[in-house]
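Question (not urgent): is this output format expected?
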Amino acid sequence: EQILIVEKKYIMEVCKIPVLSTEEKKILALALKGDTVAKKNLLKQFAYVVFIAFKYRYKLQHLQLNDIIQEGNAALTQCAESYNLEMGAFTTFITPVIKRAMIDSKQ
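Got this back:
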């Protein structure tokens, strides 16, 4: 499957964003309540969505990679809105939600 030039550019740009440390995630989670800057920083996890999309694209062969990534990004955004520290590590919280969104998009 060939990846379109736009998809390649998006993936390359997203992967340049440094992943947040555990401590940064905790600080941002505390600030999430109404803090738009904190939400934007937490959404830097788009590179993680790309990683999951690459992992699952063979199971979702009938979908374009950009569609899988879009579903994952939408799920990530919803997770960022509802996340709090009591839910545990952010990555642990978002991983099954993102996977489910990608799998559900195939139906």
